């Protein structure tokens, strides 16, 4: 039975071939530069896709929460890193997780490291998160006083093992000069490595962002790359120059429920609860919540004519349709929507349907 015959309501379709190609390309790039690829699994959040990644030499992953780390536990990962400033209210969960799984956490202040030093019963690694200009979270690059205090407290507990410095330059998503941001991030990690390596000879530095890792070719003495979105890519990454539309590995299949020829609009069952509400702005100022692709038994194709999701509410989506699309579509058909932000769309949907009719797991679909 063709996979399209299984779809009656909004469904997130995954192209395994494209997904594998994305993983392989990044793995080969990391290997070419002598770096270890430790992908951020907040995008895929899947055991099965994790098994694909292992085929390309990936042995560790990063999680966005302890909940995701628990989901990934027991899947053969050498280490799972929780790349979110650790929440001290979850120390008991961390202790349980660390009983059978290599685990590391992210530290941004002395209060958290003190709580861990006092309450950990299992061995846990930690990275100090560094802020080199993003401004969301992390210790400032020049704040050696806080870094030294965190390291000093960690020495009071045999359960804490310092692993190194982690930097996510998320402002590459907003900054106009990605090259400059990448160089500043790389230099910040270099300074910290040279400052602390004599005391911690095994420390590593990790740089994690898809725009930088996908485009840049100079990583200096950074040890590990930790991008996440590259597994699927999305329209935001296309706009940033990280990939082509042909590299996007997931699309949301949505049923057509009404057509308004006068307004040149198509109403689909697919809204904010399916796509999330990430948005791009077209050249004419209109909002773009996703772009239409044409579904077929082999997956989907990108049409020469342009149609896009102009607005969404909870369950509704309104497509601004090209004349060619209007002439070809009817009520009951399925359209594909390339997501603006694939991580959020996957999180909303909670599972994937492959082109060979298999359901593929996602952490949010396994409550």
From TrEMBL:
Gene3D superfamilies, alphabetized = Alanine racemase, D-serine dehydratase-like domain
> Coiled-coil ranges per the record?
none
Q: Where does the Alanine racemase N-terminal domain lie?
A: 20-232
> What superkingdom heads the lineage?
Bacteria
* Annotated keywords: Isomerase, Lyase
What's a single GO MF annotation on this record? alanine racemase activity
This one is known as: Alanine racemase
Native species of this protein?
Answer: Algoriphagus aquatilis
Question: Lineage of this protein's species?
Answer: Bacteria, Pseudomonadati, Bacteroidota, Cytophagia, Cytophagales
